[in-house]
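Weekly sync, protein design subgroup
Attendees: M.S., D.O., the rotation student, P.L. (late)

Item 1: inverse folding check
M.S. brought a backbone from last month's batch and wanted to see whether the design step gives back something sensible before we order anything. D.O. pointed out we never logged the input encoding, so this time it goes straight into the notes. Structure tokens as presented (288 positions):
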């Protein structure tokens, strides 16, 4: 507290300035919160089979177009096999799985290709563009094993996981921008610290747990789709065990964003009674 020349009390202006600084700082954050609420509620979709609510802001056409473009890029760079036993088998399993999944999503123009490569990998892009790398066949071993991998990938596409991930990345980008504006008048080191914390927080707090929950959802849906298509669902836990062994000490192409294979196998076994019931009811080839 200070006195002016007339003996009246003069308060330091700092607290008021500070208050004003804080309220100005809140504006971009408040705007982001409003945008977040609007964006969230206007872009809700329901995942087939699991009934989970999800955030997706792309139309099916936009999503299909993006998937198609990326697919063409990958196929142009890789050694694609055009015919042969493996190609026939992958297409047959793929079509059978897609048909079994048709009642949950009829809108896809499925395409299945085989890439000649040592990588133990497979992927499905938005809109139903699937690729299987020949390197994964050593791990899948048989058609039930291959159907477990392909069912999982097909489930990612049906559940629109790619588009959902993009929506969250967009939100993180907007949030980071709002907070960067809010701390824009702070010192360089503070700004760096806040940005570093935001980066770590969004990676470990949002994106990684998020991709693990996508993995589990794809496991569940894949298991049910494979059983509907009359592939033996009991091969799925065995396949993921082999995958875990195969990926030990290797670059983790396929496993990096996936949950540990112990967790995955435990969950698959929990869902197994449901899958086996479908398998028994629908499939004359089911053997027990
Ligand atoms: Zn996956």
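Designed sequence read out in the meeting:
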């Amino acid at each position: 507290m200070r006195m002016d020349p007339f003996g009246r009390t003069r308060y330091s202006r700092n607290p008021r300035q500070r208050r004003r600084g804080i309220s100005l700082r809140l504006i971009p954050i408040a705007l982001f919160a409003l945008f977040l609420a609007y964006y969230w509620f206007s872009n809700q979709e329901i995942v087939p089979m699991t009934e989970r609510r999800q955030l997706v802001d792309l139309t099916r056409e936009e999503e299909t177009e993006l998937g198609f473009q990326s697919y063409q890029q990958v196929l142009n760079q890789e050694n694609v096999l055009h015919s042969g036993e493996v190609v026939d088998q992958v297409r047959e399993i793929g079509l059978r799985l897609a048909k079994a999944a048709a009642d949950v999503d009829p809108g896809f123009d499925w395409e299945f290709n085989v890439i000649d490569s040592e990588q133990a990998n497979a992927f499905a892009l938005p809109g139903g563009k699937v690729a299987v790398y020949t390197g994964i066949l050593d791990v899948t071993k048989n058609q039930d094993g291959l159907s477990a991998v392909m069912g999982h990938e097909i489930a990612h596409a049906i559940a629109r996981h790619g588009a959902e991930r993009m929506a969250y990345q967009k939100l993180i980008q907007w949030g980071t921008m709002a907070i960067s504006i809010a701390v824009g008048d702070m010192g360089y080191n503070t700004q760096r610290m806040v940005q570093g914390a935001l980066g770590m927080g969004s990676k470990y707090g949002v994106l990684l747990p998020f991709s693990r929950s996508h993995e589990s959802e794809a496991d569940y849906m894949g298991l049910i789709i494979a059983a509907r298509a009359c592939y033996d669902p009991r091969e799925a836990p065995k396949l993921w065990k082999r995958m875990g062994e195969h990926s030990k000490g290797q670059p983790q192409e396929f496993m990096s964003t996936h949950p540990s294979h112990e967790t995955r196998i435990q969950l698959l076994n929990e869902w197994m009674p449901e899958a086996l019931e479908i398998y028994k009811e629908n499939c004359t080839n089911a053997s027990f």
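Discussion: Residues 152, 156, 215, 218, 258 surround zinc ion (CB under 6 Å). The mean pLDDT is 84.
Action: P.L. to compare against the previous round before Friday.
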